[in-house]
Amino acid sequence: MQAAGFVAHCPYELGDRIAVAYIGGKAVLNYPAGVEDATITDIITAHSLKNGTVTFLYELNGEEKLELIRWEDMQEEEY
């Protein structure tokens, strides 16, 4: 078995309140309209050894675990 370690900075903490819109299975930040207030109730960290990346998933309001994506980044993905 290979040991792995990582250092990552999460921009949010448990209990933080954020405004999100739910689009395509993602929670979108900075969306221009139709947002809901949500509370971060858990933070899940996924570390990929192959890609060397760290991804955060957020449980919102004690329900679904979703990726948070900025509206600006979502627009870039579509084009």
User: Main sheet, how many strands, which sense, barrel?
Assistant: 6 strands, mixed
Overall 3D form: globular
Low-confidence stretches: none
Q: Order of strands across the biggest sheet?
A: 5-4-3-1-2-6
Radius of gyration: 14 Å
What integer is the average pLDDT?
86
Q: In which range does the helix fraction lie?
A: 10-25%
Please tally the helical runs, counting DSSP H or I stretches of 4 or more residues.
1
Give me the count of strands: 6
- Sheet/helix structural class: mainly beta
**Proportion of residues in β-strands:** over 45%
Distance between the termini: 41 Å
The succession of helices and strands, N to C, reads EEEEEEH
Textual characterization of the structure:
The protein has a six-stranded mixed beta sheet. It has one helix and six strands; from the N terminus they run E-E-E-E-E-E-H. The mean pLDDT is 86. 10% of the residues lie in helices and 47% in strands. The chain has 79 residues and is mostly beta strands.
